[in-house]
# Entry
Amino acid sequence: MKQKWKTAAAVVLIGAALTGCTAKAQDKTQRAVAQTPTPTATPVPFAQSWLTQTGEVQADLNGDGTQETIAFRRTDSESYEETKAEVIISGSEGLLAQASLPGTFDSAAVVDFDSGDGVLEILLCVDAASDDFQTVAYRFDGTQLLASNQLFGKAERVQDGKLLVSNWVNVLGTWAGRMRYVLKDGFNFTQEEGALWECTKGYFEPIVLKKELVAEVLNNCQYEPITLPAGTQLTMVATDGSSEVYMTTGDGQACRFAISTGEYNQTMIEGAPAEDWFGELLYAG
Ligand SMILES: [Ca+2]
Ligand SMILES: [Ca+2]
# Structure
C-alpha cells in the first residue's frame, strides 16, 4: 500500500511537471469543464466490444447502414507457422473479407477511434512468443480489410481516440509500462506526442545505485539537483525510453535524470554505460 502511494505521488509530481505545475493544471481543468459537450439527440456513441475469448460481434464497420458480423478465430498448433488468430467479416451473403495474424489469440475488439469519421476499427492482439504481445488494427472498406502497422504490446482500451497499450519497457532493467498510441494518416499507430511510458512495476525491481548520481527533484514547481548516494534503490515511474527517466527512491522521493542511447543500443548516463552506475541491471529475455 505504501509503495502504491509513493508511486501515485510520483505520478502526480510528474503530471505537475509536464503541465508546468499548478497554474497550467488548473487552466487545463477549466478548459476540460468548458468543453464538456451538451447532450444532443443525434450521437449514440459506439460501445467498445472487447473479447478475451474468440467470438462474434455485430457492427456496421464501414458506416453504410448495414451490419457486418465480425468473427474471431484461433488456430493453435504445435507448429509455429500454423498458429494464428483470424478476423472474418461476413454479411447476409456470406464471407466478405478475412485477415490473420501469426501467434496465439489473446484478445480482440471492435472500437471507434474517431466518432466523427463514420467507420469503426477492429483490434486483434496475439501472443507472439511467451508474453510478447502484438496488436494490429483493421478497417473494413466494404470489400477488404486494411491493416495498420503492427504494434508491440497488448491493447488494453481505447480512450479519447487513443489506444492504451501495455508492454515491457527495457530501460535500466525491464519494467511493465503503458503507452498511448494515436492512429495517424495512412492508418499508422504512433506514440502520442510527448507521452511517456508509465511504468507500473519492475520485472526485477528495484535497481540499486553503486555510486552516487546527481538527479533532480521537484520542489515548489522547480527541479533542483539532488545527489543520490550509493545504495539508493530506484523504481521506474515513467520514461520516454530514450532521453529521460522518472524514478522514486526507496524512501519515496520522486526524481528524474537524463539518459541517452549509446553504441549497440546501450543506455548511457552522463556519457557512461548504465552498468557503471548500477550494480545489476536485469532484462527479461
Ligand atoms: Ca456495413
Ligand atoms: Ca469512427
